[in-house]
Design a protein that fits this description.
The complex is a heterodimer of chains A (415) and B (314). Chain A contains 20 helices and no strands. Chain A is mainly alpha-helical and 415 residues long. Among the domains of chain A are: 181 residues, no CATH class; 45 residues, no CATH class. In chain A, α11 packs antiparallel against α15. The termini of chain A are far apart. The relative contact order of chain A is 0.11. In chain B, strands 1, 2, 3, 4, 5 and 6 form a six-stranded antiparallel β-sheet that branches. Chain B is elongated. Chain B is an alpha+beta fold and 314 residues long. Classes of the chains: A mainly alpha (415), B alpha+beta (314). Chains A and B meet through α1, α2, α3, α4 and α6 of A and α1, α3, α4, α5 and α6 of B.
């Protein structure tokens, strides 16, 4: 009994005192927003045909369908071409902000608004990849996915370093301004009856996040006692951990559904299933490659059976670290192949990102190290023309500006 | 705005000092995590157990150390409220604050709030996953009884379909073809030949590392939508049937204007769509053979609106 309560208290401590999987959540933030950013840029020339008011799925058709299914889309707020163009650009900017981890929580909400709005505007344009992004965009809002590998984290590091040196940190002006602007926008679309005219889930989420962000800022600055701040921190951790769990479970549901339904199919049983998609006109960008891959019945059968086994087995392998990692590598490889051979790059990228939430932290730290070194090398190459500047790593810790400010800041503080 | 991130990130810095520091709730001899949890019973147990997949990915992070530190405090070593000055030799007044986290740092009054949040999140996550699971599962006794509730929860934002190439992959190429009736400048009515729009999509996808959704999904899914909302008599069923017809009509009209420059021949009056379904021939090593004869499904002529006829799509 005592053991149980100890386990329980340890578990509660873990899910309340910190946001678990900091690197995993940062990686999926980068992965999903990166996938969507590439997609938005790739489809930029086709944006009007896909989501514009005069596209085949016209604004009027969209209206009739969303009136029926109550899906959220900001593109229904106005049927004008200008609103659509502005929205598309804003969606790109919000996605880039999330990718970089700039004002991460706000960016994640705007990212979600962009993904849901565009996809719900033209539901018949998407495929499985869009579906993954749709769900994950919603779940990401609840995570603290900017704790590492983000501009927010870098800013926090710098502020902490400045505080440690005893400097006064300038209060954040941009955050409150952004908050005020978004509040005005929300109020505007609410008062004109647009926000809540179709479903309540997403609109109320928008208002809730806005209110909580305001509350958070007030509590951090004004509260006399520490406890309100800690309570909010605990709630944010709990939400993050819950959302991360849902994201992981969602990935398992995807594989389980895909796998278990395949078992029932005669083509998956006779070992020819993989052959057919390779020979569909819509999924064969490299017919010669597809023919080469499917020239051996034995290989096709092995791939067919292997796919089903891996998909069905994956959720259960989570209980064994080593087996899980082997399967992860296999699934990522398969998706990388699918990206090229079936011509589904964005779907594959989204799925690889979903897989990546299960990668061990040690691997992510390794990847992060490589990325940082690659970036350093790039920066150094860029600065070779100006050899007077110090090494980039050092300059990041103590930017030239802050070094100058150090002395007066210190004096000001101790006074 | 995004203070979430700053704050918890700061924690990394003073982490070392944190092991020695004890949560203030120890002062009243209260055992924080146990007490907070037991009151909540099974739902909290569920949450703790459910998080186990995350454990795996998290094992090598500092949180493990933190948990240990926390545990030792739970044994109940009394400690006075420590001014943060001790931990910060530079003399920082406010900044040391973020080092306190978790329920253990809260007084019982606030712990209730944390417990409520924990329970609410655990319940919401489990209910949500249960609903999604049921929406994905085959029809069963539970979905028969509660189908409405499940649908209301899942649709529209959590709708999903992962029967990817399952139970069986599509084994037919379905091409959408179109012909048009054009009023020429001389006033004659001319009917064009059939044009295979899907073949053009296929050609655009060939050798393409980044196929566009307009090439890969637009026509393909529009046809699926149309086929799913039309009876065998090719008449539309319900609102969606009508929507799918308008959608298909607009797609083919747009493409006729864009790709065939049909506007030069005159004004499109009507369009007719048909599908051409051919079996993918089974692999030679399977020793199966299917008919290679295409099957056509011809839809009735549709009148094009004046707006569409003027090239008003996209």
């Amino acid at each position: 009994m005592n053991g149980l309560s100890l386990t329980l208290s340890r578990g509660i401590a873990r899910v309340t005192e910190s946001a678990l999987g900091r690197y995993q959540s940062a990686l999926i933030r980068i992965g999903f927003s990166g996938t969507w950013l590439l997609f938005l840029l790739r489809e930029f020339p086709h944006r009007r045909e896909m989501y514009g008011p005069d596209g085949p799925w016209s604004w009027d058709l969209g209206r009739q369908l969303t009136d029926e299914n109550h899906a959220f889309t900001a593109l229904m707020w106005s049927g004008g071409g200008a609103w659509f163009e502005i929205f598309y650009v804003l969606a790109i900017l919000a996605t880039a902000a999330l990718l970089l981890g700039w004002r991460t929580r706000t960016a994640s909400v705007l990212f979600m608004v962009g993904v849901l709005s565009l996809q719900n505007r033209s539901v018949f344009m998407g495929d499985g990849g869009d579906n993954v992004l749709h769900l994950m965009a919603f779940y990401l809002v609840f995570t603290r996915c900017g704790q590492v590998w983000s501009l927010d984290a870098r800013r926090a590091d710098r502020e902490a370093a400045a505080r440690a040196r005893g400097e006064r940190v300038r209060p954040d002006r941009l955050g409150p301004a952004l908050w005020a602007v978004l509040g005005l926008v929300l109020a505007g679309v609410s008062l004109t009856g647009r926000l809540f005219d179709n479903g309540w889930l997403v609109p109320s989420l928008l208002w809730t996040v806005w209110a909580v962000l305001g509350l958070w800022a007030v509590v951090r600055r004004r509260a006399r006692s520490e406890e309100p701040r800690i309570l909010l921190d605990v709630i944010a951790n709990v939400l993050h951990n819950g959302a991360l769990f849902v994201i992981m479970a969602e990935a398992c549901l995807i594989y389980a559904t895909a796998g278990w339904y395949k078992i029932q199919g005669s083509r998956w049983q006779d070992g020819t299933a993989v052959y057919y998609p390779l020979h569909l006109d819509y999924f064969s960008p490299w017919p010669a490659l597809a023919d080469l891959m499917s020239s051996s019945g034995t290989i096709m059968m092995a791939v067919t059976y292997g796919t089903v086994m891996v998909q069905v087995a994956f959720p259960f392998t989570l209980f064994n670290r080593r087996v899980k990692n082997v399967l992860l590598v296999l699934m990522m490889l398969e998706h990388a192949v699918i990206a090229v051979v079936l011509g589904l790059p964005f779907f594959s990228l989204a799925m690889i990102t979903a897989d990546a939430v299960f990668l061990p932290t040690s691997v992510l730290l390794l990847l992060g190290g490589w990325a940082a070194r690659a970036r350093e090398r790039l920066v150094r190459r860029g600065r070779d023309e100006d050899p007077v500047l110090p090494a980039p790593r050092a300059s990041e810790e103590t930017a030239p500006g802050s070094a100058e400010e150090r002395a007066p800041g210190h004096v000001g503080f101790s006074a | 705005m995004d203070a979430y991130d700053e704050d918890s990130h700061n924690r990394r810095g003073p982490d070392g000092s944190k092991g020695a520091r004890l949560p203030e709730s120890g002062t009243d001899g209260h055992e924080p995590p146990g007490a907070g949890g037991e009151g909540n019973g099974p739902s909290v147990t569920g949450a703790a157990a459910d998080e186990s997949p995350a454990d795996d990915t998290e094992r090598d992070e500092s949180s493990a150390v933190r948990t240990d530190a926390h545990e030792s405090s739970a044994v109940g070593t009394p400690a006075n409220e420590q001014p943060p000055v001790d931990t910060d030799p530079v003399g920082g007044a406010e900044p040391a604050a973020p080092s306190r986290t978790g329920v253990a740092a809260l007084s019982p009054r606030y712990q209730v709030g944390a417990a409520v949040a924990l329970a609410a999140v655990a319940v919401a996550a489990c209910v949500h996953l249960g609903m999604v699971f049921l929406s994905l599962a085959p029809a069963n006794t539970v979905t028969k009884q509660h189908g409405k509730a499940i649908e209301e929860w899942v649709y529209p934002e959590f709708e999903q379909n992962w029967k990817l190439f399952a139970p069986n992959p599509l084994q037919q190429n379905i091409a959408v073809q179109v012909r048009a009736e054009v009023r020429t400048k001389d006033g004659d009515l001319r009917t064009t030949g059939w044009r295979d729009l899907s073949a053009r999509d296929g050609a655009a996808i060939d050798g393409n590392l980044l196929p566009s959704h307009t090439q890969q999904n637009e026509l393909r899914r529009a046809w699926d939508f149309l086929a799913a909302t039309h009876g065998t008599d090719n008449r539309p069923v319900g609102l969606r049937g009508a929507l799918s017809e308008t959608y298909m009509r607009r797609i083919v009209t747009m493409r006729l204007y864009r790709e065939d420059a049909i506007g030069r021949q005159g004004l499109v009056q009507r369009v007719q769509v048909r599908s051409r379904t051919t079996n993918v021939q089974p692999p030679v090593w399977s020793r199966e053979r299917f008919s290679s004869k295409p099957v056509y499904r011809v839809l009735p002529w549709w009148t094009v609106t004046a707006d569409e006829a003027a090239g008003g799509v996209a």
